[in-house]
Amino acid sequence: MATWADIQSWELSYVEEAEDLIEAEVREAREIIADLEHAAKDIRSQGEAPDRMRQRLSEIQDKLDSRLNELTEYALATAELHGYVSRVAAKRKSAWEVAAEVGYDIPESGVVQPSAPETRFEPVASKFAELRDCVDDAVRIATEAEETVGPRYQALADGQYVLAEGRHSESAGLANDADPSWTPEEVSVWWALLSESEREALINKDPEKYGNLNGIDMASRAKANDLVLNGRIDAAGHRIPGTGLLEKAQKEYDEAKAAYERDKDSFWGRQYSDDEALERYRNAENKLNDLLAIKKALDGNSDISLIALEFGERGENVRAALAIGDVDNAKHVTTLVPGMTTSCRRSTDLNLGYARNMIEAAEDAGGAEKGSVAAVAWMGYEAPPHPEELDFSVASTHKAEVGGQKLNGFLTGIHSWRSERGMDVHQSAITHSYGSTTGGFAMRDIGEGVVDDFVYTGSPGSAVHSVGTLGVDPDHTWVSAIPLHDDVQGMGPDWTFGRDPKELEGIGHLSGDATGGDGYNSDPNAGTFANHSAYFYRAKEGQHNYSLEDIGKVIADTKER
Hints:
The chain starts with 11 loop residues before the first helix and ends in a 6-residue tail after the last helix. Helix content is 49%, strand content 8%. The chain is globular, with a radius of gyration of 26 Å. Helix 4 runs parallel beside helix 12 and helix 11 crosses helix 15. The protein is an alpha/beta fold. It has an 8-stranded mixed β-sheet, with helices on both faces.
C-alpha cells in the first residue's frame, strides 16, 4: 500500500519521458514488421533456397510480433500510469494548498488531525475535512495504481505477457478495438499508434462508440457522430436507410404517437388514461426534437461539429457536445457547461450563441488571434429540469456528481490527445448555474495540468469549501457574480453544494457588471432570476458587458489578478 511519504516523489514528467521513448519503439517496430511483410511477398521464386528464406523471415516476424506486443503493453501500461500519477499529483498539490490556507503542516504519516474538535460544516473545519480527503484520496489513487499497473509491469518483466496480435491482425501489434476499461490516456496512445486506414475502419465499424470515446481526436469523433445521426454510408457514398438515429427516432415517435392516440380514442382509454403510453409518446417526442435541434445547428454551419452524441436511456434527454472551431488544433479551447433545464431541444441554439460570444470576447477583449479559439457547448450530462415539472433533482447534487465524472473524462480526453501529439493547449472550463456545481465536482478529481483556467458563473455552490481543492492552479480559478436579479448564487446548502464560490478565499473575482449586455434587465422590480444568464450576453452597440469581456480574457489566457 502506498503512503503519503511515498507519493511525495511522484512526478508526471518522468512518466511522460518514458511514454515518448516506448511509443517511438512501437512505431519503429511496426514499420520494420511491415517492411518484412513486403519483403516476404517479394520472394516469388520457388525451390528449396527460397523456401528456407521464407521460413527464416517468418520466424523473425514471429519474434517481432511477440516483441511488438510487449512494447505495446508497456506503452498502454505507462499511459494508464500517466492518468494515475496525474491525479495523484493534483490531489497532492490540493492537499498542500488547503494546508497552507488553514496554516497546517501535513505530517509525513499523512494523518491529518486538527487541534480543535471538528464540526465538519463550519468554514475552517470543512477545510480540514477537505484537507484530510485530499490526502486520503491521493494515497488511495496511488495504491490503486500500484495494484492495477504494477501487475502489468510484473507480467512483462516475468515474460508472461502474451497477446495474439500478430502481423496478420486488423492492426498489427495493437488491440483491434478500444477496451472499455481504458483511460483517456491509454486511448490516446493506442489511437496515435494506429494508421489512418485503421482508424477509419474502426469509425465505420462502430460509430456510436468512437463518436464518444474520450482520448481520440475530435475530427474522428465528429465523423463518427455524423454516421450515427444521419446514417451509415455504403461503398457508393450513399446513406443506408434506417441506420441513422434521426430516422430511428422519427419511427419511434410515429409509433408511440399512433399507439397513444389509438388507446386514447378507445372506450377504455377514455375511462382510464394510459399514463405509460403518454409517457412513451412524450419521451419519443423529446428525443426526436433533441436530434432535430442538433441537425438544424449543424446544417449550413461548416465551423460546427458534433463531438459527442448519446441517445440516453428511456426518459432521459439526448446528450451532446457541439464545437465551434478546431478543437484538435486551436491554441485555446474552452468548454461551456450549462445548468438546469439544459436539453438539446431547448438549449442548442442558446448555448452555441453563448459559445460564439465567448470566442468573440476572447478575440476582442482577450486579444486572442482570430481563429485561435475553439469553444464547446457541452450538453453531455442529464441536467435537472425545472421544479415546475415536479422533478426536484435540482435540489440534489446527484446529477452534478454524475455529470462531473463525464465532464472530467471529456476534458481529460482533449488534453491527453493534444499531449500525445506534443501540442500544448490552453484549456478552460466556463461553468454556469447548476453546471458550475457539476464543474466543481469534475475539478475535484481532474488530473494535473488538464484544465488551465476554471470559471464559476451564477453558481448555486462550488462543490468545495476551499479553492485549493480544485485541481487547477488557485491563481487560475475565477468567479463572476452579477449583483442584480441572479438569486441562484449560493442557493445550494453548503454541506451538499459547497460554498458560494464568490466567498472562497483566494479565488479571482471577474467583473459582475453585465449592464451593457443585450437583454440585461435593470428593472429593480423584475424577477429575481432575470439576469441569471446575462454573463454571456453580447454587448449592445457602444456598450460593454464587462462580465463577458473578463471571461474572454480568461479564455485567451490574458486575465491578470
